[in-house]
Amino acid sequence: MAEFTVAEAVALLERTPRELDVWLRGLPEPWLEARTEGPESFSPRDVIGHLIGGERTDWMARTRVILQFGEGRAFEPFDRFAFQRESAGRPIAELLDEFARLRRENLDALREMQLSQADLERLGRHPDATFPPVTLRQLLATWVVHDLSHVAQIARVMAKRYADDIGPWKAYHSIFNR
Description:
Shape: globular
Number of strands: 2
Number of helices: 9
Number of domains: 1
Radius of gyration: 18 Å
CATH class: Mainly Alpha
Order of helices and strands: HHHHHHHHEEH
Strand order of the largest sheet: 1-2
């Protein structure tokens, strides 16, 4: 298993906005609004709104809390559903542009921090008291995995739109197993 590095994390994180832009910009609305995993599940548009929320209030905010306060101050709770208020009715192009801008600003700020190995081992405290302390390394690695999870989620939700249309080939596509 590979060891986390900030440079490798940034290399992936800076690509996510471009990948999602190429994939989603200009798609017909049924693709963007697909909620094939239930009425409370995220559509591709919802995922972009959710990612914007993380850029505004989660990853870098928590990084700063760890560096400034360590375990002395818990992270602010992250509202996973704030996007429902903040991005409702906005065109996908506008959401993609905002996500790209916020991500670029956050990664620029992260690079400027020039984090040391000692910084990456600093501990922070989750707002859920039952959650164990986390290192900055774990937080930043989770940011990467969070992106990858949502890219996979978008692919899965979109694929499920055609689950019945592909007939018996469905048995050959693992994307339908979740």
